[in-house]
């Protein structure tokens, strides 16, 4: 098998996880919400988007909705926040928004020991103020 064949094969065997009711949004934007691979779940960045994909205007509600959107993906893969091992968050203007954002986190974070975390300040998130992406360990029964 050539390298090209291996790449082509890998592209056709992605084990994609879709949360209920939001597949059209991901198809329209041309990305997968999450992919299972080698015992892990790799989740694309989740924002506080409403059903139609538009941003929730209230920051605290937007962060809570981003976590709920993430939770729906974790649930679809039979995972919980306790299975999350690595987190990356993106915040527009973190200096002024960090406290508001971070007061929502304990509602969802899971139990200690907590996952690793990288926080990145950005200038633009397509109209959103917060985005979270994670890597989770799949339950042993789903270890693929």
From TrEMBL:
One of its GO terms (cellular component) is cytosol. GO terms for molecular function: deaminase activity. CDD domains: YjgH_like. It comes from the Bacteria. PANTHER family: 2-IMINOBUTANOATE/2-IMINOPROPANOATE DEAMINASE RIDA (PTHR11803), RUTC FAMILY PROTEIN YJGH (PTHR11803:SF44). This is Endoribonuclease L-PSP.
């Amino acid at each position: 098998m050539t390298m090209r064949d291996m790449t082509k094969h890998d592209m056709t065997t992605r084990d994609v996880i879709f949360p209920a009711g939001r597949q059209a949004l991901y198809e329209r934007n041309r990305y997968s919400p999450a992919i299972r691979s080698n015992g892990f779940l790799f989740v694309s960045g989740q924002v506080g988007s409403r059903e139609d994909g538009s941003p929730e205007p209230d920051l605290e509600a937007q962060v809570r909705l981003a976590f709920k959107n993430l939770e729906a993906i974790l649930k679809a893969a039979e995972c919980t926040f306790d299975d999350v091992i690595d987190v990356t968050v993106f915040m527009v203007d973190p200096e002024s928004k960090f406290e508001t954002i971070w007061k929502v986190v304990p509602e969802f974070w899971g139990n200690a020991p907590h996952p690793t975390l990288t926080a990145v300040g950005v200038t633009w998130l397509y109209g959103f103020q917060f985005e979270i992406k994670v890597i989770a360990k799949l339950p042993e029964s789903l270890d693929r």
